[in-house]
Design goal:
The protein contains 26 helices and 28 strands. The strands form five sheets. Strands 1, 2, 3, 4, 5, 6, 7, 8 and 9 form a nine-stranded mixed beta sheet that branches. Strands 22, 23, 24, 25, 26, 27 and 28 form a seven-stranded mixed beta sheet that branches. Helix 10 crosses helix 17 and helix 21 crosses helix 26. The chain has five domains: 251 residues, D-Maltodextrin-Binding Protein, domain 2, CATH 3.40.190.10; 138 residues, Periplasmic binding protein-like II (D-Maltodextrin-Binding Protein, domain 2); 86 residues, D-Maltodextrin-Binding Protein, domain 2; 112 residues; 163 residues, Heat Shock Protein 90. The chain starts with a helix and ends in a 10-residue tail after the last strand. The longest helix has 95 residues. By secondary structure, it is α/β, with parallel strands linked by helices. A hairpin with a 5-residue loop joins strand 11 and strand 12. The N terminus is likely disordered. Helices cover 46% and strands 22% of the residues.
Length: 817
């Protein structure tokens, strides 16, 4: 924390008091010396309320901008503004391409990379803001789980992560490089919640603040390439702290919102009071309640009361005050710049235009909203042109800022501007709300309507650059007088703007009088209308009841149709179950009969070992067939219930092919079939897949090929590696072809459905459940592959299985397939 200046002086030994005084005098000369140095490059990024106007030609304003201007009163810095997103400007600060960047929180990883001053430029709380219409998110942290929270890639992101972790909230944090993109994402609904400084809403409609989740100080940081700037910044902040201890607070209240305070005189104010013998005040004529010249040539309005009042309240005597009226705002500003007057009032337009005019703005004397005065129906698109008072530059500044595309026409007075609106020469003009009420009471302007803008506009004192002592003196005086006194003073002068005559009073309120007469008539008519309305409401209620009954009848009919469909499906399932049981009973009875029969024969011929051995081998064969039927049924059941999972392992393709050959070789030999294996373009022999399920797919197809191919026929097995775009994967094609009995076109459409066969085993004499190909299709789908079949009755069948397989990290010794 910075040491209070008065405490520092009290701690010095008496002998060093004179030295301290000399130091103070030298310190006052620093700004004058700094003015002749290199310009200070300020990184200026767009951030709502905090810092706005980040583009060439745009009006700069905001918390940070006013803070820069305040520091310039102590350092004499002349700024060169460098525009860009926050992220780019931060990188430029690290590289020394800019000198200052505002709004940086303290982070350990930044220490030594940028210059942190001793005193922060402000402090802020962090808030979570949601869309007002999203009722699923509340102040309860758990409701943000699974939602997107947008935040700037800064210290705020760290505070947000800690907050979410503390509350166990698993939300998706989306970071942004600059504020503009962050606010656009929130406004566009790309994020559900906004994590931002302050209340985060900044006047947004349809936005609601949820809660605060942290706080921190933020700093105006310097580039380490210019260490002298950090020294000057520390000195300026210390002196600002001594001169205006509440400046940061008041600046924060101005924008979130305004607040004022006062304290003892600063060194600059004391120096000014000692040197000042007279005070020349320039004011704008014909601008009541702020300022005007009365019939005796004397100043009147707020300006005539407030300047003497400030001197009185601050106890300053011996300063003679002189007033000078101006018809032109520009002429008044020009005179203050060349020293013809000391104070100009009123001054408006904001810090940007004040800087451009070479003057400082005081704290607001009076703030009021601006009224848009128009004729006819108001729509925002209607305001295409404005009438402006040629002598009032403040009006020009306001319209230029809020209606940049509007056409401007200048008139010699406010009255002429209003008449131009009535005549339809322009769409509208503007009036300060303190002036509008009284001016528009005149019957001449009764055709005009008012649209009041939301944000209040301040009217301030203006002093030239270099006269900081007077500026601080005026600010102090305004703080002592207080906002309520100044507002009451302005209202009092506004009431004297215009006095209504009896005729104008009647004319202005003739509509109200006529309305009172009509009220009685309307009351009678109202009773009559009520009866008619009741009759209509009863008829409407009957119509709604009829429609509701029709809707319920329609829903009942739909329910009956749904029940009928469900019944049909149940009956179809029952029929399928019956067919399945019939087929299975026959298919299972055949091997069971063989087992029972050969068992009985074996018991009768126990004395003949060779014959018993033959019977037992046939029993074993029938048992294997029966077990195969049962396994098919169980596999299909497990697949349909989702209990089958893939267990991947490394597979060496040559070994896999040899295993398949060994398994089917006996059946191939038994039927004297010609079996060939062919490979094409195999570049990767080692893959990762579920070996058990791959074997099951290939064996099912090979077994069917052998089963449905007559003796002496041919079965071929081809493996090919095809081009693949997937990194780390290879595409394999397995083709199994036979010249057996083939299948019909109709059966090809249902071959992969459960319990379907070309002919039952009773007719074909070939045993099977009709589940083999259904199981095969399901496994191929689980492995992310494809299976296709081409067949023609009497000519044979070809199955093609395509699979994307992961490549193994290890490669075995190449072996021939």
């Amino acid at each position: 924390m910075a040491l209070d200046f008065s405490q520092f002086i009290r701690r010095l030994p008496p002998a060093l008091h004179l030295l301290a005084a000399c130091w103070l005098l030298c310190a006052q000369a620093v700004p004058a010396l700094a003015e002749h140095g290199a310009p200070v490059r300020v990184g200026y990024y767009e951030n709502e309320v905090f810092q706005e106007g980040a583009a060439p030609g745009a009006v700069r304003k905001g918390y940070a901008y006013e803070y820069y201007r305040k520091l310039a009163e102590y350092t004499g810095w002349k700024y060169e503004y460098v525009y860009g997103p926050f992220g780019e400007l931060y990188e430029k600060l690290l590289k020394g391409e800019i000198d200052l960047l505002a709004g940086l929180a303290w982070r350990e990883d930044r220490k030594g990379r940028i210059g942190y001053p001793e005193t922060p430029m402000g402090s802020e709380t962090y808030s979570l803001v949601k869309h007002e219409n999203d009722e699923s998110i509340t102040a309860e942290p758990s409701t943000m789980s699974g939602r997107k929270i947008g935040v700037l890639d800064s210290a705020v992101a760290g505070a947000l992560a800690k907050y979410l972790a503390m509350h166990g909230v698993k939300a998706k944090i989306v970071t942004f490089k600059d504020y503009t993109a962050l606010y656009e994402a929130f406004d566009g609904g790309q994020v559900d919640v906004l994590a931002a400084e302050g209340d985060g809403a900044y006047g947004r409609k349809q936005a609601e603040v949820l809660c605060a989740f942290g706080a921190s100080d933020y700093y105006l940081c310097t580039s380490i390439a210019r260490p002298e700037l950090l020294d000057e910044l520390n000195s300026a902040q210390t002196r600002l702290q001594a001169d205006e201890p509440h400046y940061v607070h008041s600046l924060r209240m101005k924008y979130y919102p305004i607040s004022l305070s006062s304290r003892a005189f600063s060194v600059e104010e004391v120096a000014w009071m000692r040197s000042c013998k007279s005070l020349k005040v320039g004011y704008l004529d014909h601008y009541m309640p702020y300022s005007d010249t009365d019939g005796q040539g004397r100043a009147t309005g707020v300006v005539a009361d407030i300047v003497p009042k400030i001197l009185q309240e601050l106890g300053v005597e011996g300063i003679k005050v002189a007033f000078q009226g101006y018809d032109s705002y520009d002429k008044m500003v020009e005179d203050i710049g060349r020293g013809a007057i000391d104070i100009a009032f009123p001054i408006g337009g904001g810090a940007y235009y004040a800087e451009e005019s070479g003057i400082y703005q005081s704290r607001p004397v009076v703030s009021s909203t601006i009224d848009i005065v128009y004729r006819g129906e108001h729509r925002a698109g209607n305001l295409e042109s404005f009438a402006l008072n040629a002598g009032n530059r403040m009006q020009h500044y306001y319209v230029k800022a809020h209606f940049p595309k509007a056409r401007l026409e200048f008139y010699p007075s406010t009255e002429e501007c209003l008449k131009a609106v009535i005549a339809g020469k322009v769409s509208a003009t503007t009036l300060n709300s303190l002036r509008a009420k009284e001016i528009l009471r005149r019957s001449t302007f009764s055709q005009l309507a008012v649209w009041q803008m939301k944000d209040p506009v301040p009217r301030c004192f203006g002093v030239r650059f270099g006269n900081e002592g007077l500026l601080k003196f005026l600010n102090r005086g305004l703080g002592v007088l207080g906002e309520s006194y100044l507002q009451e003073l302005a209202s009092r002068h506004a009431n004297a703007l215009y006095a209504l005559t009896l005729a104008e009073l009647f004319n202005n309120y003739k509509e109200e009088i006529a309305g009172a007469v009509l009220a009685v008539v309307l009351l009678v008519i109202g009773f009559l209308v009520r009866d008619v309305r009741r009759s209509r409401e009863e008829a409407l209620a009957k119509e709604l009841a009829r429609r509701e009954l029709e809707e319920k009848n329609r829903m009942l009919a739909e329910s009956q149709d749904a029940l009928s469909d469900a019944l049909n499906k149940a009956e179809a399932a029952n029929r399928a179950k019956t067919v399945f049981l019939n087929n299975m009973s026959h298919d299972m009875r055949t091997p069971m009969n063989a087992i029972v029969g050969f068992t009985a024969l074996a018991v009768e011929r126990l004395d003949n070992a060779a014959l018993v051995k033959d019977y037992l081998s046939k029993i074993a064969l029938s048992s294997q067939h029966l077990l195969s039927l049962i396994n098919d049924v169980l596999d299909m059941s497990r697949i349909e219930s989702g209990k089958v999972t893939l267990e991947e392992s490394e597979i060496h393709l040559p070994a896999l092919v040899r295993e398949l050959q060994a398994i089917i070789q006996a059946n191939v030999s038994a039927k004297r079939l010609e079996f060939t294996v062919d490979v094409q373009d195999i570049a990767h022999e080692d893959i990762v897949a579920d070996k058990l399920r791959l074997n099951q797919v290939l064996l099912n197809i090979l077994s069917n090929a052998i089963k449905f191919t007559p003796e002496g026929g041919a079965v071929s097995f081809r493996i090919a590696e095809l081009p693949s775009d997937a990194e780390g994967r290879a595409l394999f094609e397995f083709r199994i072809k036979d010249n057996g009995i083939g299948m019909s076109e109709e059966f090809k459409k249902t071959i992969f459905q459960a319990f379907t066969r070309e002919r039952t085993s009773t007719v074909s004499g070939i045993q099977g459940t009709g589940l083999g190909m259904a199981i095969t299709k399901n496994i191929v789908d689980m492995m992310g592959g494809e299976i296709a079949v081409q067949s023609e009755e009497g000519k044979g069948t070809e199955f093609v299985v395509s699979l994307h397989c992961k490549l193994s990290g290890t490669q075995a010794e190449p072996q021939p397939l």
